[in-house]
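Per reviewer request, we include the raw input and output of the structure prediction for the construct analysed in the revised manuscript.
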Amino acid sequence: MKRILSLVLSLVIPLLLWGCKPSGLHTAGTTEATAALPTREPTTQLEFFLEGMAEYQDATLYTGDGYSLYITDDGWLEIPGENGQMTWQSSYNPVISLTVIPNAGAIPRQATDAIFQGYTLSAQEGAYCYGHSADGLFYRAARLIETPNGILAVTWDYSLEAAEGFGTRLRVIAGTLEISN
């Protein structure tokens, strides 16, 4: 636990005033950007590195309104929300979830403010932002992607006790999200 806390604290850096920077690599809106996406396989294996060891897990492609991503095949409950929002909640631990928000805001700052309401922003890595609860026991992370309709976000929540396993897995799953027509 001290190792995880040290890692989290070492990543704490001030955020830029405008919030997370949306991913430029996944910007949609032009024929070239969307046409460049290859057809995605219906299933794949995702690779996770936990404690320096590679682990593989089967995953199935989920296609939403204007996006697709791979969700691992075991342990998730699918919960549809309003305005196209979709959440996958862990059947092992209800605190752990991954959510796709098709229209998180018009600009990065607006999306970041809405996503991290009730959390303290603590770090940014490109299109990825990280925050924690006031007591430091819960974490929220987000990946922002710029689209013609605003900011699409994929967020994931997990507890301190699940940070090493689920924190890693959820980031990999979030990284599979791609914009589609």
